[in-house]
Amino acid sequence: MDNEKIVNCQLSIVHSEYWNMEHKRLTLFAGHYGSGKTNIAVNYALALAKEGKQVVIGDLDIVNPYFRTADSKLVLEEAGVKLISPQFANSNVDLPALPAEAYRLVEDKSIYGIMDIGGDDRGAYALGRYVPAIKAENNYRMIFVANSYRPLTRTPEEALEVMREIEAACGLAFTDIINNANLGPETTPETVLDSVAYMEKLSALSGLPIFAHAAEISVAEGLEGKLSPVIPLRLQEKYFDLPSQRPGNRPLFG
Q: If exposure means fewest CB atoms within 10 Å of the residue's CB, which of 49, 63, 66, 243 is most exposed?
């Protein structure tokens, strides 16, 4: 499939109506490594653009070189979403640095800004430079993306510890939780349903509301009538070229 067909396919299945919320001017997504925050950030950016809003998404993840917002550059640009990403993103030079243009996210009040924050406290340090302006404007939502199946967040208590570490590192408090419980391509509706008690306990421990549950489109369809609200996600496609592990043309979803 050529690039144009891929882009059109991805844009056609963005469901803006599922993001039934008061849109803040700034929305930040953070969480543990592998929580799926980048997928959610990209889907939210596309949903806002579909509503006709001027959207800029900033990839502030200077820690993880493998799953970056820059991987969705073609789809974002086709939707009219401006992408600001670390220097050298999507290259074989893994010394990422945030461009000065990233300050537009907090300075330009005419846009809807989305920030994809690096994993854990180490990635959150990059956000710190923007926090004074974010607090001064006070028109933001900071969402903790939780995946109960990740190795270091197997319990709500472990997830809460990660949440507090991120808050301490960047100086900004979370406002909401998104349940993105998944096992990659092995995820089923039951995978998500089994995570609900975990998320409810994390909500109680943190004092934060569960904003929504997120799942890949086919999984979300299987949750209809069983869980609400559920946001269907179009996942990023990643191709790895490792001699011993290359899966041919089968996409791996990040």
A: 243
